[in-house]
Design brief:
alpha+beta, Glutaredoxin, five-stranded mixed beta sheet, two-stranded antiparallel sheet, 17 strands, elongated
Length: 544
Amino acid sequence: MRTTGRRLPTIDPDDDTDMHSHESLDHLRPSLRPSPNRSVRPLLGLGAAALTATALVTGLASWSSPVGGPLDRAAAVASQDDKKKEFDDLYDAAKGDVEKLWELYDWCEAYGMQKYHKRVLNAILREDEENRKAHELLGHEYYDGKWWDDPDELAEYRIEKEREEAEAKGWVQYKGRWVDPADIPFLERGLVKDDEGNWVDPEVQKKLAEGWVRQDLEWIPPAEVENVEKGLWKCGEKWLSLEDANTYHSQLGREWRIPYDEGFVIRTTLPRATADTIAEDLRRAARDVERFFGRRAHDVHLLLVDSQDVYNEFAGGLSGSMGTDATGWSSVRGAYFADANWVAREQTYDPIGVGLWDLGSEHGASFGRHYSRYAYGIAAAESFDSSPEARERIAKSGVNDGTLNAFYREKKLPPVLRFGFASYVDRYFVETTSRDPHWARRWSVQNLTAQGGLEPLTRVLAMELTPRLDDEAAATQAGKVLNQAGLVVSFILDADCAPVKEAHAAFKAAMLSGDAKAVERTSKALIDAVRENEGALRRWAESA
């Protein structure tokens, strides 16, 4: 990278010194100001002859020739010649003296000789290289400790310097500018930093300033804010108590939609207090998102339903309506990604993680904890790999085989990492608050052992997007592969295998950069690293 700008001019091409002797400008300063009652006063001892000649020509022109006639033109030429001669004399006298050169600059301004401004300013800079006023009048720009007179060269230098500084800080390119990778999730959501450095939504700030209050995802106008202060909940057009609001939201289609600070939204037919309890657990799961993907997830939506019947209806469809599960994973686990969720009444595409928390089952809460975690994990993975182009197609054409195939073709994460992360959050998480932090991994590996032991790693790493569900045995086998995909992610995150950790670090860096090709490349490299260390993975499983 160059470290110096273009060198400023050091010679004056018009410096044609003649044999005239010159006197100081000091005693002539009054003549550097125009008088409203006279023509240009001759300077530097040009004498009365020049003035008489000029006045004579001018007088004759005004008496005997119409405007624009030959005498007018002759007078104009004579006047310009006189001014040029006078400027040359003044310039020669002022050279080397910054103060006199500034006086000459003012004289040029007063007598319409602006075409000599640049010459005078360059002469000033030869005597005072850092003279700010002269640089600014010449249109130069001060940057990085020096003045630049070439805009193109400055632009090139600035780009290179900003690149070096940004890369030294670990910043990346985002939509044509350098940013901290940690800022990208906020920028993607349209947030900006306020004066105190906090990320805010400009529209949210505007509404708050106007007196609106947000209750969950709904904005309450100032006239109705008193209802919120009374502890009531807006349900349709009515304001209800919490108990009545729980009843209102217990039906699918008008479920609770509760946003939480960690960037996820729980939609649920469960009582609100139950949703808050689940959210506490998902806050811990959110840390695993950052551990695996290298960045936090935002706008993660999951739907938790309160009965097996509602779960089956939402997944498979009811009364001729289209189901929401195009791949069949809802039959393998009590949670899945609703990739075919087209909301007919709104004509919108709403893919979402779905989990079962069966209030009518004795063990509904125990299993519900795992299912809600899986729903969160699969929705978080989707937030990083959301197939935006295919989503646009679906928004225009709806959900069909063509648009769903395009949706999955656009994915950058291979299934073993996508489903494997959800399975890790579900079955292999480390619970630091427990007396046995690794109980979940131990339980999951015991399940694998009871089902005949680990599957060949190659089969798991190449797991397919759509499970085979020909019969109960096939569904059980698909569940086993899903379980073992979670073990693979557990090995990546928790086993401390050096080659795998190195590949994982590169994967996280690619995820931070947002470079789709880098994500694909590092995903493959990470899977290859796991394959090459299969022995270490099996020992990791046996240590559970």
